[in-house]
Amino acid sequence: MSHGVRGRTSRSEVTPDVAERVADAMQALSAPSRVLILAQLRERPHSVSELIDAVGMQQSAVSHQLRLLRDIGLVVGDKRGRSVVYSLYDEHVAALIDQAVGHVEHLRLGAVSRSSQRAAS
Amino acid sequence: MSHGVRGRTSRSEVTPDVAERVADAMQALSAPSRVLILAQLRERPHSVSELIDAVGMQQSAVSHQLRLLRDIGLVVGDKRGRSVVYSLYDEHVAALIDQAVGHVEHLRLGAVSRSSQRAAS
DNA sequence: GTATCATATGAGCAAATATTCATTGAACGT
DNA sequence: ACGTTCAATGAATATTTGCTCATATGATAC
After folding, report:
1. Which residues pair with B78 in a beta bridge?
2. Among A115, B90, B105, B119, which residue's beta carbon has the most beta carbons within 10 A?
3. Which tens digits make up the pLDDT trace of B23-49?
4. Across the interface, do A3 and B34 touch by the CB < 8 Å criterion?
5. What is the pTM of this model?
């Protein structure tokens, strides 16, 4: 199929620096546990306890991942009493999650899980 | 290829299974080297040698990453003589890359990268 | 005050990853 | 046939990652 070179829009060149930032951001979506957390937060804000319950991970693991997501800037935490309610940073993050999920629907990758890279010679 | 078993065309629930597939796909964009490779291929197909030159990696490293991208289904390789010309699998992949880059432009809030983790609360 | 709940954090560890080195194989030129 | 070039592969390695355990901090209840 021909994929014509679509008009040369002013799309920023992906320099090594940009590539690193892209990788950093996408890294947030590269672990199932984080995808689950983000998917929950896309529905509505959740406290940490709610997230723990929703994704079935340990408190510490959730907290660690939330810190990562906070550092990357995808989520924010609002302290309410002794709870902390987390939400997505903004709509762009929600859109990013939607698109990631959407693309996966399309790329029906039953191909290989990232564990099997074995080939007998 | 109608294979959709779930009649849920709206936003599908992100089950652990879906989360794993999302993570798997996003994992492809979670390493700078792969982002660079994909960005090159988004412009136009490249042979492996061209990619090596474009991204400044070693032949073996590029080949390994291409295999990963092939396995995930993001790129395809076409053998032409002794070269192999790689291209993105389809437009959806191109869109995925565009969106990832676009979102990073937006998320350029000065979020720290993984290296320097600071508690900000 | 002390106890308890909710979350954050650090150390340590196992598993996954990304790269390099060395080798292999296939396609071409001579 | 031989040698050369382009790419793929396997093994080894260093780094990164995600989790658990233990502990710390902060807020509320008693």
Report:
1. B85
2. B90
3. 999 999 999 999 999 999 999 999 999
4. no
5. 0.82
